[in-house]
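INPUT
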Amino acid sequence: MMKSVNKDDIKTYDTYCYQCVSGPEIVTVTVKNGVATQISPCHRAGEVHPGGGKACVKAFGLIQKTYNPHRLTTPMKRTNPKKGRNEDPGFVPVSWDEALDIVAEKFKSVRAKGALDESGYPRLAASLGGGGTPLSYAGTLSALFAAWGGPIDFSFGSGQGVKCTHSEHLYGELWHRGFTVCPDTPNTKFVISFGASTETASGVCGVKRHADARVAGMKRVQVEPHLSVTGGCATEWVPIKPKTDAAMLFALVNVVVHENARNRLDLAFLKDRTSSPYLVAPNGFYIRDPDSEKPLIWDEATASAVPYDTEGAKPALEGSFTVSGIETGADAETWTHNNVECKTAFQVMLDQMKQYTPEWAGEICGVDVRKIRALANEYLDNAGIGKTIEIDGQILPLRPVAITLGKTVNNGWGGYECCWARTMMACLVGALEVPGGLLGTTVRVNHSARDRRLSVEPGPDGLMYFPFNPTDKEKWVSDPDQRHAGRMLVPLVGNSGWSPALGPTSLAWAAQIDGSQAKMPEMTIPEIWVTFRTNPVVSYWNTDKLADAVAKFPFIVDFAYCHDETNHFADILLPEGTDLESTQITRIGGTKFVESFWRHQGFAVRQAAIEPLGDVRDITWISTEIAKRAGILEAYNTAINKGALSVPLRTKVYDFSLDPTKEHSVDEIWDAACRAASAEVTKGEESDGLDYFKEHGYRVSPFPQVNWYLTPTLIEKGLRYELPYQERLLRIGAELGNRLHEKGINWWDKQLKEYQAIPTWHNFPGIWEDALEEAFDCKIGDYPFWLMTARSMQYSWGANAGIQMIKEVADNIAGHDGFIMNTGRARELGIKDGDMVEISSPNGQVVTGAAVLRQGIRPDCMLMLAQFNHWKTPLAKDFNNMPSMNRLIPMLQDTIDATGSGADLVRVQIKPAGGSR
Amino acid sequence: MTRWAMVVDLRRCVGCQTCTAACKLSNGTTVDVQWRKVLDMETGEFPDVRRSFVPVGCMHCEDPPCVEVCPTTATRKRDDGIVTMDYDVCIGCAHCVLACPYQARYKVTKPKYGYGEASQHEVENFDPAKIGVAQKCTFCVDRIDDGRKKGLIPGVDPEATPACVNSCISDALSFGDLDDPDSKVSKLVESSKTFRMHEELGTGPGVYYIWGAGS
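OUTPUT
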């Protein structure tokens, strides 16, 4: 809302802050004499925003972010053709005309050669920052990409796959449309959190929901190697050895299914809503009816095997039965069985989990056996089987228990096992996708991100459809279309707009550093690399070598804020408006990342509250100019009309489309988008444009709470969750192996082992230890500490490292001015609080930082918050006490799992560096 | 009578420092001056450790030591409990800085900006009256007074409520009139287990910390 407080010099504007994945939040900007001076909550938005219209600390940094004197406020071009960390780029200011012409000419000349190079890789690559939030600041950049008219390589990640919750993204979405997963916090009573960063990374909605739940009596037990901010807010902290979470989770399953009576489980849910009753044939695939090819279950009513959807059947949940039928494995290999013993999927799970007792897990995890057993039983005690709750007039089950996972827990090896076990724990008590239980929030591999219930479509065998990349001989993507080969190697990433960001991004960087893998196309360098709100040169791994690789990129265009480590290698810097200087709309509400559950959905506006500084321009203007000068304006406008701005400008209900042949101003473009948004929200009744959004800030319609829960949709469609048994993954993994081996590729064999029907424990910490020893010919015992990281609310996703006020307030939280280690262990080593310490990794890299001594961390662990080690970004490059783990983590394929994910984890050794903070 | 007070629910606070940042912007405090901030406290020894987040600032005491030592009456306590600073009267002796048992006061002798030179917003937000004198949290007294003139209720209407309370994303901070039994703060204190910081000093802090539900 724009209103005149004092018509001479003070105005306020509503806009959004979407600096992190848990947004957006709507904030009010106060502008005094043309200068933005204040950020405050938009209390009026509390009528629709679950967090009361408030925004987190990052939003308050936007003022200083805008007036940071280190900002680049004019286009620049590189004058030193030599690129390298130690080369002065020789950036000189140029006019917008010159900068845009250089970019447009490069676009034209490269595009004229074809979208793909001689290796079949896209000539144009682009990288955006994490979590997809940059798109809410990118104006019409996505239309410019669409107008390119061919594949673009998005595989050069800035942390995607290795610093997100990658296993959860893929397996969560497969099993219950949970790209991110959380408890139904307002209704839950008991949560076991394995390292989830709720209080630092779940945004305003998550923080508010958990605070309310704590006061209402929710118990949350935090299981993690160090006592994080989230752990501090929990009821109890259980220190666990890094990467052993799967063992403890298996033990929880063990206690529930082997130490408790069956009637403590939600048997109806297991029988009717999961694939637990499906019978497993001798080769590990379901035994099927020969005619319909449907999986068979054992019908206790008729004492016979019948197709799973036989009306009136009473499925046996456990046991082994003599059955005849067919079994179909990988590549349509089929076996016919007569009177063979087939266990139910549930029975296979029971047998597999029997070995994972609390006594077994306690030793691996370093956790008291009694604690493991007590937690499992407390989970059952709180599950409330049989209880119901009314939501929006519907009576639904109430199962107020959940298990959540943090990023290092479900990234890399062990992620599959952890995700499986926690989802299985939900199934055992019927707590999956019902009030109080475990919920997914959004989808990214499936459609529609607006309402994940719409993605629930019938697939084979009574299960939900999932858009796996094909693994059969005919349709397998045998030649990679992205440099990380995501669609070729990872069936689970699908082929949505997000899929390129979900592939094994470390493979793309590793190939730039080490060259192409055997039997793969010769690795090439993209001829153009566009970067926007991203800084992979410090935010990925093995950063020194990654920087050397980036130095070889021939033409880099960066939409620049200030000089940083990645645009140090750029050829053209295009300064775009910050959050307070540009215009666009974004979708709000519904269910979004982490804990963003709204009872409304619609759109919010980001409006230019102030005149842009210097010669900074709105990114929509920049994109339009490039499109025009590159001769792709019509395609650009057409993409906008089709919905590149998150809302189509023409549907059957309305038409606000732009003339594709003409150039349109920023306000014309966004006015049309606002009209379309108004029409969508009001079902065609209203068509207010940009002025309406500038005045009101947002426009929404109701999104019923019952839409938060997926199970009612599965019931309505007669579908089941694909748990516990992973027949599809088993088949797909085998087929993928066949395809790769046919091509002569054996370097993905370790990853293929993850495709198990029921997960098993592997020595997950040992995978890292062995990989380091093998790669660097070292003795892992010489590196006695596990180095980990944790989210920082003040910094995560915010590109805030150069903002002084953020640094100042973040330093109030331990670990923001050094690295954390255990007080007792430090004393043994003669290290005092504040001492400068050298930390070395087996990869030969060394960083230095100040020791922050805390009791709340295991003695064998160290912690480095967030991602620093800047050497170019003004201010941040002077954070001498604050080391980053990114230089210390090598990109080793052996530490990458089948989803292409890795974890922020490495072994290190330390020695005093002399001096103190 | 009116007794303005703040209630901090320690069960809710997550240490995010949003209040710290909101206070800095709203009051235009210079670099390293934090009228409100959140402490990150650890108690116990591994593995039996607790971590707590404790917002602190001026406690607006009933019997403020800072008032007692002020030689110029620059520091006063109003009838409604707010401890105020009159920058025009303060001579910057800093006795109050030493006397405050809560380390809530600052004295800045020259402005310090985020990046050396003043940025545009720092020019607009700069208040020269705060240089060379003692400064501290005022409970955003101007907002309270201006709001009341408009008929607004501090602690209920954001325009009349301290910026830190408005900004708190976990609703850990509440503000209101402790003499009004129907105010949120009165009800919270009544229904919860609370303490006041260094109560043994007899300062009568106007900030209450909730550490549990009432019996």
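end of record. Chain A has a mean pLDDT of 96.
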